[in-house]
User: Fold these one by one.
Assistant:
Number 1:
Amino acid sequence: MASGAAPGVPGTLPADPGSSPAASGVEPGVPGAVPAASGVVPAVPGTLPAHPGSSPAASGIAPGVPGAVPAASGVAPAASGVAPAASGTVPAGPGPSGVGAQESPVAERDGWGSWRLSGEKCWISNAPEADFYTVFARTTPGAGARGVTAFLVPADRPGLTGTPLDMLSPHPIGALAFDAVPVTADDVLGEPDRGFRVAMHTLNLFRPSVGAFAVGMAEAALAATLTHTAGREAFGGRLKDLQTVAHQVAEMAMRTEAARLMVYAAAAAYDEGAPDVPRRAAMAKLLATETAQYVVDAAVQLHGARALRRGHLLEHLYREVRAPRIYEGASEVQRAVIAKELYASVEAP
């Protein structure tokens, strides 16, 4: 069940002379290459692959917002260029301004065991190409997180339409409109009014996956920087012999390794069903995405203007690296989750 060919990555031409072959694992046309937009970690040793189903999210489910519902298309394009059917989550709440009138979808009863979804949602991964969308709709007003139900809605359901959005980096993201879309008990994921639990369990898996994706970008940028600084002649010698450059590269490597190990730890905790998975997942996502931003930015600085030339690996990564700090819970949300989990383990005086 595929959504058809996933869009390519415009502007990612073969790397210019300043690019490192060691970092070409995310460049089109190279065996084993994977576009960074695909949600799959570049082929760098020691990195974990991103889990299918990762989808943009700014803050997770926002309980207590009347009628709030996230809708998601789920799986990011695979390396083969074909996007599997959807699964995943996107935050609740009204859509952004500037993308048409936004009204968060609501689920209204339509007889016993059936509802109709009406409203709009924006920033949905793989919309409108996906085969299915995971929709979290408020089925019991005023019940907060206990009044949200998760539905798996086929894309061809009557009343469901979508439009693509033109993003800075060419991720397949769009907006969805629900016009009395019929859903039944057979479409419910989990139990009615218990969708919040489904969403949180999903985020505990996807957050380390996003972290793995980010580590892959950091590894690619670091590899490119090592090759470039080892061979680039400047100031009467090679860049690597300048202490400021060498120390910068060491910092990039240290942070990347720390992020990689934290992602592994979070993945292991998830597989073991450890009680501290939410905290570990949030830490892994936060550290890895912030690290990737730092490493890619530092790599651009050490490469100079060549890194900003259209088609260069780092130009591609520079655009790709920003989004992971926002979806599946922005960095600020991860800090809030970590603090909440920490204080929950402390007994009140």
Note: The first strand starts at residue 2 and ends at 5.
Number 2:
Amino acid sequence: MKKELVFGHQNPDTDAIGTAIAYSYFQNQNGFDTEAVALGEPNDETSYALNKFGFKAPRVIETAANEVDSVMLVDHNEPQQSVSDIDKVKVSHVVDHHRIMNFNTADPLYYRAEPVGCTSTIMWEMFNEAGKEIPKNLAGLMLSAIISDTLLLKSPTTTDKDKAAVEALAKIAGVDYNEYGLALLKAGTNIADKSEEELIDLDAKSFDLNGHNVRIAQINTVDLPEAMARKAAFIKAMEDASKANGYDMFMLVITNVLDSDSEAIVVGSDEAKAIFEKAFDKKLEDSSVALPGVVSRKKQVVPPLTEAFEG
């Protein structure tokens, strides 16, 4: 059997990297020859989880077709979020928890998608269904992914399956998920030593919304006023990125992980800003607006923007 690469989306988060490692292990147990790789370096939060449970960061790839003929995707399916030459390889498997968009294959494939808070929750189900034991360190990494994606089960994306998975994986990993979870989230909130250009690219995804190229980035913090003090510099970095990459709108969501409130900064044309205001029924003031209770890009940001751009 030929080797396949397993990876998550660009600008990988803890779910993208953690679930790639988990799925590669799972598939290798099933007789496949896979390697978990990444489409970028791990962020501070992910590095904390990898170090905590004794994993090395997966190697970073720029392209896949020069190594393999076939790949497995986790935590994404949209081509613009994947490896640059995704059109040159066969996608044999997908495990995801996002919308399905612009995804086409020439051959049948295994595709599993569920509306849960994290792809690692689906992996936990798959291990259980197959009757396979989850190693202690891998359980800790999968736990980290769920905590990250659900903001310690506080995100509106959280389901009963996520809660059950967290409890079960924490038991296997031998950690208190509340205590560990808070430490993990705080590890990812150190923004003081990073430039605005780095911060707007750490956790950013591009979306095709009715023909518009929309970039949505998110930063987690425990000090929202400190982050917003850099607003002017964020706006310049976002405008420069938009010009360089042809973004019709760039939205930065700065989220306080302790109280689950966010502030949005938006750059783009007057038309794009008007669409944003329609989507959230809020007026931008000097390119920003408070979004109380908004923490999930997947569930609370992309759907209203999609509807507004199509309206």
Note: The first helix runs from residue 14 to 29.
Number 3:
Amino acid sequence: MFVRRRAAVLAATAVIGTAFAPAALADESPSASPSPSTSPATPSGLYGSTDPTYDGVWRQSLALLAQHTVGVRPAAKAVDWLTGQQCANGGFAAYRADPATKCDTKAQVDTNSTAAALQALTALDSDDAVTGAAVKWLKSAQNKDGGWGYLPGGASDTNSTSVVIGALEAADTDTRDLRSKDDRTPYDALRGLSVPCDEDGGGAFAFQPDKKGKLAANADATAAGVLGALGEGLVTEPEDDGKSSAKAPKAAECAGGNSPAPKQAAANGAEYLVGAVAETGHLESALAGADDQPDYGNTADTVVALAAAGRTADAGKPLAWLKKNSGPWAAQSGPAAYAQLIFAAHATGTDPRDFGGADLVKQLGATGPAGKASGSSDPSAGAKDGKDGSADNSAEDSGDDGGVSVWWIVGVGLVGGIGIGFLLSGRNKKQQRP
């Protein structure tokens, strides 16, 4: 969830203020996204009330997927809004203000928005024509090395490759045998982005190699890479669901050499994440020149990754930290933040309706159109008083800030005429340009 929000590199100074414009070309990713300005007219059906230019599809997809996960049937107009964002070629851009207009460079299709939308719409059993077109577009955007970059043709990165794997797997596409023109699979690409065991940060994933081909350990990319290497999406089932065979082998130390098998790469990445949260229970990230700050979104992603790797017990400490500390952050950040916390709760078998005393389902529902309670296999998904998932579109519990989230994968526009796609994130990672 991937998504995973990556380097808070926002390309529109009108949205975030000129103070952050230089960060778009910086190597070090800022830790948190600044609060964007409120959109004067939030589209009907869209979750969150802030400017959706950079994260409309992303936050909507996560909100709908999270509701489905906890047994809430999203409002039809919310689903219709998302499907209406699809471009004629099957892909999705971060946001299209006027879906009637043709997709172009002002609404550039990207892999992350498309993958998030595909996963949500697949879970909601949307029309095969919609999901099939998205699958076809994602396949067409695969790089020769087997992976994906944020924009078609961009250098492969761990986060984009992983979120696409999860989406394609959710749509019943066998990614193990999805080969590029150079006969490379997505897992070949991920292996190439795994830091060798004998190097600093061994076992972690890098976002991308630097200009010299060096791989730098990155917690953000590692949380994504663990899920990708396991073929998992944004939603991971609790350990007792009978799917333990899909979990990564537990590893006390990095193993597998310079080219570990996918499950071993996931185990190595999980071990790195355990160490990253061992002291404080959370990840940290910082804006250039600023003090380190807690990284709530990537900590939530770490919980999901550890649970997916069969390390639920090790996810306990960061989960407890999130229960105690994530409330104000989620209220400020909006629907995608609530969704990330719901994914973390679900992955660990925790009740999202009593998450450190907070009802995440109600809080998410308050940021958009009212959904309806429905059946679910989630043991924590039963409706309470028939009201779970309802919304009054008020700002209660939501903070009215859903436009630019600080974690899993949000596309940004063009920077000064340079066509570079970036991702928003609260994770501490190096942002390398293709």
Note: The first helix runs from residue 13 to 16.
